[in-house]
Amino acid sequence: MIRADFLTDPGGSLQGFHIQGHAGCGEAGFDIVCAAVSSAAYLTANTITDVLSITPLSLRVEDGDMMFRLEARDGGKAQVPLLGLKLHLIGLEEQYPDAIRVSYIEV
């Protein structure tokens, strides 16, 4: 199962995400849920770093594990792509409830 934790400040503003695990919906390289989550996470991180020119406080990418966290002062500028990722992953969770779980962690 993929676990997608959105990092929030005390007011609920998104500050980043930590996505880990594998969906198990197909063979490695052919799992549509893993591909959808991975593509969306990279799109979000690249939009924030390369389009909005925001340097993350933390960025780690390994097989089946991506952590992306912003400094509190930059969270407001990145809300649109982060909210887009959240909506996308919630939609996947509704379609594939045994493959992905979305939750929130206050930082």
- Largest β-sheet summary: 5 strands, mixed
The structural class is alpha+beta
Shape category? globular
The average pLDDT score comes to 95
Number of strands: 5
CATH hierarchy, class? Alpha Beta
Low-confidence stretches: none
What is the C-alpha radius of gyration, as a whole number of Å? Answer: 13 Å
What is the fourth-level CATH superfamily? Answer: Cysteine protease Prp
One letter per element, helices H and strands E, the order comes to EEHEEHHE
The CATH architecture can be given as 2-Layer Sandwich
Helix tally equals: 3
Helix content: 25-40%
Give the strand order of the largest sheet, numbering strands 1, 2, ... along the chain.
3-4-2-1-5
Task: Please describe what this structure looks like.
The chain is built from three helices and five strands. The protein is an alpha+beta fold and 107 residues long. It has a single domain (2-106), classed as Alpha-Beta Plaits (2-Layer Sandwich), CATH 3.30.70. It has a five-stranded mixed beta sheet with strand order 3-4-2-1-5. Strand 3 (58-62) and strand 4 form a beta hairpin. Helix 1 runs antiparallel to helix 3 (79-95). The longest helix has 20 residues, at 32-51. The protein is globular and about 40 Å long. The mean pLDDT is 95.
